[in-house]
Amino acid sequence: MNRDTSLAQAAPRGGPRAAGSRAAGLRWPALAVVAAIAALPLGFDSPFYIHLAVLVCLNVFIVSGLALVTRSGQLSLCHAAFVGIGAYVSVLAEMRLGWPFLAACALGTASAALVAFLLGSAILRLRGVYFVLITFAFGELFRLSLLESAPLTGGANGIANVPAVNLLGMALDTRKSFYCLAALLALAALGFLVALFRTPRGHALDAVGEHPELAEASGLSVRRSQLFAFTLGSAMAGLGGVLLSHYVGYISPESFSAQVSIAAIIMLVVGGRLAVAGPLIGALIMTPLPELFRGAVQSQNIFYGVTLILILRFLPQGIASLRILRRLAEGDNR
Amino acid sequence: MTALLQVQGLCKTFGGLKAVRDLSFEVREGEIVGLIGPNGAGKSTAFNLISGALRPTAGSVRFGGREIAGLAPSRVVQHGLARTFQSASVYGAATVRENLFRGAISKLGVPFAGQLLGTAAYRRRLDEIDDEIDAVLDITGLQAVREHRAGELAYGYQKRLGVAIGLATRPRLLLLDEPAAGLNPEECAEFGRLLQRVRTHYGLTLLFVEHHMALVMGTCERIVVLVQGQKIAEGGPDAIRGNPAVVEAYLGVPQHAEA
Question: How far apart are CA A80 and CA B91, in angstroms?
Answer without folding.
Answer: 31
